[in-house]
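Revision sheet: structure tokens.
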Amino acid sequence: MHDCYIASGWFNENQARDLENIKTALDELGVNYFSPKDEIVAKPDASTEEQEMIFKGNVDAITGGDFVVCNTRDKDLGTIFEAGFSYASNVPIIYYAEGLQGNFNLMLSRSGRAVATNIEELKEHVKGIMDNPKYEKEYIGFVEWFCRWCLHLKSTYKI
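Predicted:
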């Protein structure tokens, strides 16, 4: 049994580092997780039957968990599929976008419960969703924050 499915590429140095950081954060919080990289990876010469078994294993692991942590680094296509499948299956998503400072993709932000831009934020959101399955926290990037601040000044000072 697992609490969390980790949707993440691991196909370059940055993705692999993010994945390990996510797993470490979840370990520190005592969260049981399913990471496809560690569970069921297709070999390049996998038969159609093996591919189907791996596909079914992954989608079953997504729906069998309480939530998904989705690493958006480098927009891995499998990860993006896993996010869409999670949303369509009503499995809550926490997006992990290390270092993000600006706006976040509209379709992803509307499909997720929270966006973490660093490991500490990820831990906060994971604790939140573990404590309350309906947990949500809106992501406000710097650009959005600045625009809201300007509107606030305009209305406050009648500019």
